[in-house]
Each structure stands twice: as C-alpha cells, then as structure tokens.
Task: inverse folding
C-alpha cells in the first residue's frame, strides 16, 4: 500500500487581509515520510507563512493543506498532537525553571507521570542539562535556553518536526550536538522540515531542499542535484544566490 | 515619543481624567447640596411644624431633599438606595408642640426652656451602607434646623398669644412684669441683662403704638425641643449594626482584586513578546484552554486575596484597636456570588489590558491608574451616593461600582443572591465581553 505524504500542499495561496500582501502564490510541495527537507529562501520569501500554515497557526486563503493525512484547517488539534515546532525565538517561560519549562510543554502535549519523566530525562541527558534543571530560565545562558527550546518541541516525540533556525547564535559545540541529534532522529523515521539561512547546514543535513522566493517555489531537489543543475555553482550557497539574486530583501 | 500613542495617553489623558474625578470626589467628600447624597423627607404631621420644617430643609440649600407623602415612601426610598437618609416628621408633632401653650403660656414656655422635655420626636432613618462620618455630617446641621424650626414655630404661636395679652394690659408695669416674668426662669446666658432690657423696651414701644411684638430668640432657646431618633433602615433578617469594617473590608478587597491586572496583563505580554503564546497555538490546546487555564489560576489568587483580607479585618484589626467588628454571618451564596462575579470581572479587565498593551510599562501604568480611576468611580474611597450626579452616571460603567454595590448589598444590607442579580449580571457580562475581545485580539495577533 502506498504511503501518504506527510505534507501535501496544493496551490497554496496566502494573502494577508490587513496589509494586502500576498505571501504565497500557488505553492505545491510534497514532503514524504522520513525526509529531511530544507526550506530555504531570502527574508520575506514566504517561509514563515508556509510553516505557520503547516502548524495550524494561520489559515490559507486558498489551496489544500494535508498534514499527516489530515486537513490542518479542519482537524488542527489532531495534527498538532503529532507535530513539533522549534521556533527561532526562545519561546519559553522565563519565570519557570529549566525543568518546569520542559515538563510544562510535556503536560500540554498530553504526557504525564512516568512517561513524561522518562522522556524528559532522556532529552535532558542528551542535551546535557542535568545540572541546570533548577535554574530559572531568566538566569540561563543563551546556549541553555536554545537547548530547552529544542527539547520543548521534541518532548512528545513528534512524527513531523519543524525547526526554524535552531542553531541561531549557538556555538560550534552545541551546533554539532544538534546536528547529530537531528540526523539520528531522522534516521529513526521522523520527518523534519528545517528552515535556515546557513546554506552549509542545509547542504550537510537535508536530503531535499525547497527554495521559495516571492511566495513561489523556485527549486526542489536534493542539494547535490540542485548544484549540478546550476552551471558554475559548486555549493548550495551559490545556487541560492543564482536563483534568488543579490538584491537585498525586507 | 510622538508615535507612542499609549504612552502619550498615559502622560496626558489619564492624569486629566484623574484630575477631574479626584476634584469632584474631594468636593463630594463633605455632604452638601453639590454632593450626590439625597435625603428623603416625609411630613406625616402636616401642621405648622411639619410644613415649616419641610420648607426650611428643602429651601435651605443644605442638601438634596426629596419629599414623600408618608413614612413608608421615604423608608422604601432609603431601602432601595434612591435616598441615603430620611427625615420623618411624625403625626401630630405640631399639636404636641402647641400643647405647651395650652398651659399658662409664659410658665409653660419657661418650663420648657429651663428644663427641656420631650415634646415631639423626629426620626432620622439611614441606609446602613452610609458610614457614620457621613451620617454625622448630615445629621448635625439637620438637627440644628429641626430645633430652630421648633423654637420658631413655638415662638410664633406664643407671640400671637402675648400680643393678645398685651393689648388687654397695655401699660409700663405690664411690660416690666411680662419681661421679668419671661426671663426669670431662664438659666444664665451671655448678655442676659442686655437681652432683657431690649425686650422690655420693645414691649413698651409696641404697647404704646399698638404694633405686634416680636419675641427674641436668645441663646437660651438652643435647648432641644425635639428629640431626634436615629434608626437604620434594614431588612427584617438584619440584626447587626454595620461598622466601618463592614464597609471597608469588602471594598478594599475588591480594590486589591482589580490589581490583579498587573501580573495578569504582564503574563499575557510576556507570552506575546517571548513567542510562547504563538508556540502554545501550535500545540493541541484551544484558545479556550489557554484562556481558561489563566482564569483558573487568577481566580484562585482572587479567592485567596478575599480570604486573607477578610481574616485581616476579622482578626487583625481588633488587635490593632479597631472598635467595630466584621460580621461574616452574611448570606453565603450571595457572598460567593459577589466574590466570583467581582473576581471574573477583574480577570476580564486584566486580559483586556494585556491584550491591548504592547509593553509591561504600558500595561502596569495604564492598568494601575485605571484601577484607581475605576475605584474612585466605584465608591471605594468616597461612597458613590456622595458623588455628583454626572460622576455618578459615569460610575455606572465601572465594574468596581458593580462589585462594590454587590458587596455592600451582601455585607451591609444583608441581601441574598436575588438582591444582587443585577450586579452579578453586569460583572459576568463584562467578563464575557472582555474575554471575547481578548480572543479577538489574540487571533488578530
């Protein structure tokens, strides 16, 4: 039996009523199970709008959006239970401790008791947060906050993980740890959508790359295939610049 | 800075609003015709005394009086909050006053003036919600008017009789005799001899030219002719006499509850600014769950505030020497209703401030100043019935006014749940509208 795609987006259009801005202009994207997809694009290209629609934060103006086999606009709670989002900003409660933040998001995802403890302990150990658990988040370093931010999106072991620049402002050691963890997670079957401005990261991690610009999907393929298709380009960064141009964006 | 409209509003609009309201409130703190306090007056006497007293009080410019045909009407007006106090002039007051003159005129007057006796009584009814300080401020001048009116009425009648007597015996000897006789039984008072001399001279003059004699109203006539009895208008099941704590503790508990706006709005702004709210929206939780969880936590805080401040009023204040007591033997369902209604309104207000503010500074400044304004309008510092009519009308939109009214009805007027249904409906309605507006702003955000 043919497996349904994890994400299937058809003719996706999003026009913001207030500003009149058209963020997505008929985008078609399919993400299959187990893919590690890089979603790339300059600023204001439409990446955030796309991930916001996938997460059920905003509704599309037109087009169909199927996530994990369900229409996100019709069954948002069912889908949200199975996806994890790691936002770019540190979306945590500064008045809570490291442990309280992790457990808070675990509870919200329906984890309780021993199951939550087991899952939390495993992630805490992986990201080496054991000695910081009782620290108030407001007193933690940027690196610790970034790790807690990541764990909070992973606590329920989601089938689909969406990461928005998870390595922003982190040192090389933590970056390596995150890369390793995500690769491992992906190899176990978790589908990942990875948004970043670091082309090297996308080239290294992603099995497939989609480039969006001005609300239109302009490239889709493996990093290697995209490099080969674009004559004179030796890395994904050059491909990106060739396709999106050198003009500064908003 | 000119682009920071909320900041500019905090700097200019809110101080102006405070200035207006505090000025009106301060002016209203002393009961007067300018204050919103209304006093019912019922003349069951309909004689000279009753009519004169109504004329003196209503025409004197002291307070806002409203006439009622009988005691029942005035009592109902106080019970229903239309008036805060009532002056009841009992039936046959004039007759009892004039009965003095039916004795041997001068002797009877002297007897009364030298040794006051109860001639008639005026009943002073008051709403238990009106604190003693305000009752006294009204009762003292009203009492003076009552006594003075009684003396005037009596002396007018007496003068008529003296004039008749003088016409019969118009000679110098009679004048001396009447004057001496009149003042002989009166206790010492300042300028006594001067008053007697003038009275005697006037008698002589009038006797010669045949004109009417006007009796002097000397300081001696300040003795009380009328006993003023003070009674609280209360429902049959209300046994206690509310003291200052009975008013203040619930009122300031309500005030404290509304300060929940600062932590509540702060938490909403944190969630908006730190992205946690957006993150919550990506989790399998609905708007209702997000809002309901906050409501539950802050409702618990409000209930704890209530219990704590009630305990302070009940147990700590007496230790600090407070004479009045806080009576908690009130209708429990009504108390619970007032508590929950007020708490929800406070929480709704906190949600709105949090939803519409962008920064902590805006929320805390706007929130705290608004709570003070709403408290001023709501009668926390100066009772609403004291405020001028314009401010009183504006106060109708203050949730603190609804909360205060509900608590006063429960704690002071011994009302049950049926007695506070209007306030509960307003508080709950405010809460629902606030939450709907907040969710609308959240969705837009």
Result:
């Amino acid at each position: 039996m043919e497996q349904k795609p994890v994400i299937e987006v058809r003719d996706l259009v999003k026009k913001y009523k207030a500003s009149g801005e058209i963020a997505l202009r008929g985008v078609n994207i399919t993400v299959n199970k187990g893919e590690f997809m890089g979603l790339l694009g300059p600023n204001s290209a439409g990446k955030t709008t796309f991930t916001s629609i996938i997460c059920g934060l905003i509704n599309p103006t037109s087009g169909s959006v199927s996530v994990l086999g369900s229409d996100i606009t019709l069954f948002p709670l069912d889908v949200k239970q199975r996806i994890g989002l790691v936002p770019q900003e540190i979306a945590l409660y500064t008045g809570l401790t490291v442990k309280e933040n992790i457990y808070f998001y675990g509870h919200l995802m329906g984890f309780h008791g021993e199951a939550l403890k087991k899952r939390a302990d495993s992630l805490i150990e992986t990201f080496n947060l054991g000695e910081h658990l009782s620290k108030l988040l407001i007193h933690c370093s940027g690196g610790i906050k970034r790790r807690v931010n990541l764990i909070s999106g992973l606590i329920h072991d989601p089938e689909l993980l969406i990461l928005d620049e998870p390595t922003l402002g982190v040192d090389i050691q933590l970056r390596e740890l995150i890369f390793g963890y995500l690769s491992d997670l992906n190899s176990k079957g978790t589908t990942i959508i990875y948004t970043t401005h670091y082309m090297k990261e996308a080239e290294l991690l992603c099995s497939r790359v989609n480039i969006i610009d001005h609300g239109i999907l302009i490239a889709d393929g493996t990093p290697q295939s995209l490099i080969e298709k674009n004559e004179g380009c030796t890395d994904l960064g050059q491909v990106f610049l060739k396709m999106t141009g050198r003009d500064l964006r908003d | 800075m000119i682009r920071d409209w909320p900041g500019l509003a905090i700097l200019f609009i809110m101080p102006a609003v405070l200035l207006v309201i505090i000025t009106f409130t301060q002016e209203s703190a002393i009961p007067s015709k300018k204050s919103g306090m209304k006093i019912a007056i019922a003349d069951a006497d309909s004689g000279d005394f009753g009519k004169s007293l109504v004329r003196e009080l209503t025409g004197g410019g002291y307070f806002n009086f409203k006439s009622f045909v009988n005691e029942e009407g005035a009592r109902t007006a106080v019970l229903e909050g239309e008036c805060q106090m009532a002056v009841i002039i009992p039936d046959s007051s004039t007759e009892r006053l004039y009965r003095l003159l039916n004795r041997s005129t001068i002797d009877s007057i002297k007897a009364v003036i030298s040794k006051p006796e109860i001639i008639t009584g005026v009943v002073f009814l008051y709403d238990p919600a009106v604190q003693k300080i305000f009752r006294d401020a009204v009762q003292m001048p009203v009492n003076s008017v009552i006594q003075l009116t009684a003396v005037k009425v009596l002396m007018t009648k007496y003068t008529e009789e003296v004039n008749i007597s003088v016409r019969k015996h118009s000679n110098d000897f009679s004048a001396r005799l009447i004057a001496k006789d009149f003042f002989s039984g009166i206790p010492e008072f300042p300028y006594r001899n001067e008053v007697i001399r003038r009275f005697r001279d006037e008698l002589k003059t009038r006797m010669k030219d045949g004109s009417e004699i006007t009796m002097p109203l000397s300081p001696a006539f300040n003795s009380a002719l009328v006993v003023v009895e003070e009674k609280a208008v209360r429902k049959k099941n209300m046994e206690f006499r509310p003291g200052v704590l009975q008013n203040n503790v619930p009122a300031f508990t309500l005030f404290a509850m509304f300060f929940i706006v600062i932590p509540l709005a702060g938490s909403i702004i944190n969630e908006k600014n730190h992205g946690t709210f957006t993150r919550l929206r990506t989790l399998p939780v609905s708007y209702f769950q997000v809002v309901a969880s906050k409501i539950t936590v802050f409702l618990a805080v409000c209930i704890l505030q209530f219990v704590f401040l009630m305990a302070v009023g009940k147990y700590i204040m007496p230790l600090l020497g407070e004479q009045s007591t806080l009576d908690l033997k009130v209708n429990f369902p009504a108390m619970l209703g007032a508590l929950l209604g007020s708490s929800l309104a406070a929480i709704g207000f906190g949600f709105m401030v949090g939803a519409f503010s962008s920064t902590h500074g805006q929320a805390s400044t706007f929130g705290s100043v608004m709570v003070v304004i709403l408290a001023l309008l709501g009668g926390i510092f100066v009772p609403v019935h004291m405020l001028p009519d314009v401010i009183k009308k504006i106060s109708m939109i203050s949730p603190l006014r609804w909360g205060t009214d509900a608590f006063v009805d429960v704690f002071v007027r011994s009302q049950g749940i049926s007695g506070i249904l209007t306030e509960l409906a307003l508080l709950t309605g405010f809460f629902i509208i606030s939450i709907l507006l907040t969710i609308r702003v959240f969705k837009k955000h």
